[in-house]
Fold these 2 entries.
Entry 1:
Amino acid sequence: MLSKVDSQEIMKGSNLSAPAVFILLGFSDYPQLEKVLLLVISIIYALTLMGNTAIIFVSYLSPKLHTPMYFFLSNLSFLDLCFTTSVVPQMLWNLKGPRKTITYTGCVIQFYIALGLGSTECILLTVMAYDRFNAICRPLHYGVIMNPKLLKQLAAVAWISGFVESTIQTILIFHLSLCSHHRVDDFICEEPALIKIASVDTAFLENELSIFTVLFVVIPLGLIVVSYGCIVRSVLKMNSAEGRRRAFGTCGSHMIVVTLFFGTIMSVYIQPKSRYTQNHSKFLTLFYTVVTPSLNPLIYTLRNKEVKWAIKKLLTTDPNVNVFRTKFKTYSGNS
């Protein structure tokens, strides 16, 4: 934790070193790559908005999806919408022109929101693993354990803890005395890149970052692994091959998302600074901030019969089976 000397060193010069803007270098050394990224990220962002909005819409309107699993999946989709929107528009703006700046206030807001949402996702994915554990390992008590009150409490814990962590880290980072050039070697206001432009000893801050990484990455991932270890053991004891297939199918989607998200997060945050390869880290950051949120709806949709059934009902033209149009008209009439 911070010592008195460290705290004084942070506060010293914090008002003096606050810049008007930060320069986000991104991939400015590769102008041709920037043009490609502008097109690719624009397409991926559009798919992210459509895919996650569809998941929220379908989960809300389909009575068959009013279950704990889809309650958390809707939270995840909403989180991904906010997460990508907090970084992608600024990223696209910088990619399309020579000016690659972000205001000091904009950087603080982006850092706070993106870190808060990223931390929330770590906890939320852990909660989703706990839900699957109860569904498969405790099927007879599942409805009692995962009651509506507990669902809201678990979701609240994920969101609150994520933004408490983000508040602490934002205060620590933006009270650092910074180098005069204010050039951030990244395309977003990412913590490792901001630490690198500090003009003071950041050993204490790196220790703080390590602590929070353990709390929000290592421990949640460990709990997920333990949960799925218990799930695999329970599934293998099932006599029904169809039951085993359905269980692995349901949990497989979640495990793919966990692997993609935690794998890239750990590659960026869990490594000694001396081995910090910035260009490599940029692509990893690009993956978990842009690509992963767009893949989540596809992963859950393509591997999940219930979601595919609900989407089919959404698109059908038969008014006798289209529960979505009926609900939508009722909702619109009440509005």
Entry 2:
Amino acid sequence: MTGVFSRFLPLSLATPERVLYPTKPKTSVQKVPVLGGSPISFEEATTLRARVFGSASLLGAAENEWLGQSFCFHEPEKPLGYALKVTKNTTKGLAMCVQGYILKHLLFSRRGPRVVADPASLLKASAKSQEDCLVGALSDILWKVGDRQRAVLCLTQDEVHVNDSQLYRGDGCTERIHTFEFRKQDELTFNLKKYLFEFMSEGGDGLLLFVYSIVLSRGFEKLKEDMADEEVSLVQTNGAIHPVLAALMLTGRASHYLHNGVIYEGSESSMGKPKTGLITRGEVGYLVWRREEEGGEVPVGSRLKTPSLPVWVTRCNDHYGILFNPNRELTRDYHAENRFDLHYYSSHASQVDATIVTIDTRSQTVKDEFHAPPLENLVHTKWQGADVNWNGTAPYV
């Protein structure tokens, strides 16, 4: 009876039919033509490939690990919305260094009355927040490596500018690069936002373009000087980044050394050889731990162990991740370091939710380093002897 009655109701009273409208796209990133810039030259392409991969005349396994890899986040508005997804372990080192700066912008760079104070809400980043924080992170890194004076952005166009020869083997990306140089960071940021598609498009070469941008922003001569003329490829033969590339992103210099200041090595009868480490305190920190068979201790100075922000890129036996705390006071007031939580993220396949470990520096423990989880050993390089509680999560690092 109800169904019959409803047929005779005025249209204004009848139950309206549901109309399905197309949902708004979750991302505002759009592909726009790359206009202008300087086409890459043969000399620049070969030097760039050689500096990053060791050779331009071959296309090996390392290059293939990086081609077709771009920046990609977990689903927005979810607990891991803040985090970059990594599809290949070889690119994880780069992604985790960028992740450190993403967290800087997401948690610590916001101003104004509309800022959400609840860290849990901030970490469930919206699609727009993901894009904005990625732009800020890439801009910060490029501006830092360019000594805050210049930055170079590598973008691709369809035209090929370098042909195959005995000295150069095309990879589908390097030979199509146009370079853009900026002398002001706000101009760099504007163009990163404009061309963000180049770095986030699925199947694109965003990660490699960013590595190239880092190299050209630093400059070949300064890279050589940073590494004290020691020739190393920024991407190793197994496809993983060389530690000097992580140092370059975090400190602005591609140094082999992570200690504070300059140490002179040599005998009284010979000229001391300078080992230049950290000149200034880092915004984003860096903690490193390796087992004896992996090379043993890596000295890290306080300027990276106690950064200005409570965010640390981690390297456990050369596996990268990130530790962070949303409370900025953690690295400002030592009283805050009595008992505190640290979020850990490494894009591990088993990690589908937040991993939070509790650090208690008041409860000193003596643990067998050989049997302890690597992450706990890494934590002890800064908070020696502290108790590490995984809060029910089975240690996977």
